[in-house]
Amino acid sequence: MKEIEVTAPTDICPHPEWWNSEDVWGTEVENSILIAALVTATQPEFVVEIGSYTGQTTELIGNAVIENGHGEFVSLEIDHVKYNIATTRCMKLLSNDNIHIFNMDSRTFVPPKPIGLLYVDGGPDRQIDVRYYSPYMAPHSMIIVHDMAHQDYIEKIPEMLESCGSSEYIRIDSPRGLVIIKLP
Fold this sequence. Notes:
The chain has 184 residues and is an alpha/beta fold. The protein contains six helices and seven strands, in the order H-E-H-E-H-E-E-H-E-H-H-E-E.
């Protein structure tokens, strides 16, 4: 579906019709592709995704980790129905010992090693997820946060930066918005 069907034009993104989404809640397809490309470009040893949803971005990240030839990927989904959809979609990927989808609250997961890339696309309190995971981030790692186009979330960017000790970020002005935080 065209993103214009669910997201009105804004000053930040005047042409949402240029983006696509599988449904009203899913990440823009183009953003999912970008996130997977960042996994390929940065070659992290450990990737964590908060919010598997239906597995669109999960599948692309998992494929990128496999293509990298190293690393581990964990995706977390609290909703049991969405977890089942994501695991069905990613069944082939899950045969790899380094790809995992867990049905659990993201704030109960304790990463077993430093995170090289964290993708946050879970519930409404993204800044809390950023704060929770900041101590687990590897040096020079990256945190990507989705749904950052709304003013309420834009105002929380300084809080996110402070909680992870960074001052560097890029805002991608897609219909729902992405923020990419680079850690020192």
